[in-house]
Design goal:
It is a single chain. With 145 residues, the chain is α+β, with helices and mostly antiparallel strands. The protein has 2 domains: 82 residues; 57 residues, no CATH class. The strands form 2 sheets. Strands 1-2 form a two-stranded antiparallel sheet. The relative contact order is 0.09. The mean pLDDT is 79. The protein binds zinc ion (2 copies).
Length: 145
């Protein structure tokens, strides 16, 4: 299975990872240091405490970038699977992606399915006899259409 991660998606992953690491660092710094130290007379005389609302904003930015990171990283796994299932079926003549219900290749018009003239069963165009009613559809030796 090929995961086709687009450049746009990759840049979102990288950006949210940078946001996550950067703002986590700022948050940890603020919590660990309990604010920005105020230096005076060659020593720390006080701490400028970070207001709780600023820490809340920081936490929200961290959480949203984490959610963005998870979503952008798992999006191809969640969303591209049905598309992949279609893309795995290819026209045997031109290689164009075809759905499993397609009666003919939309690109080169190669018939992919045939309908039994006796019972109406749909089957691959390569079948020589209907698997449901047993009607012979064509001589086994003849070429594919
Ligand atoms: Zn085709
Ligand atoms: Zn039939």
């Amino acid at each position: 299975m090929s995961l086709r991660i687009s450049i746009e998606r990759l840049s979102i992953i990288i950006m949210s990872a940078i946001f996550l690491v950067g703002f986590s660092g700022i948050y940890i710094w603020n919590v660990m240091m309990m604010g920005v130290p105020i230096m005076e007379y060659g020593g720390i005389i006080d701490f400028h405490y970070t207001e709780p609302w600023k820490l809340t904003v920081l936490l929200m930015i961290i959480l949203s970038s984490l959610i963005t990171l998870i979503l952008s990283a798992t999006w191809p796994l969640l969303m591209d699977r049905p598309e992949d299932g279609v893309a795995r079926l290819q026209c045997p003549r031109c290689g164009a992606p075809v759905g499993k219900d397609y009666m003919a290749c939309p690109s080169c018009t190669l018939p992919l399915k045939q309908i039994c003239s006796s019972c109406g069963e749909r089957m691959p165009a390569s079948y020589n006899a209907c698997p449901r009613c047993g009607k012979t559809l064509r001589d086994p030796g003849s070429d594919l259409p």
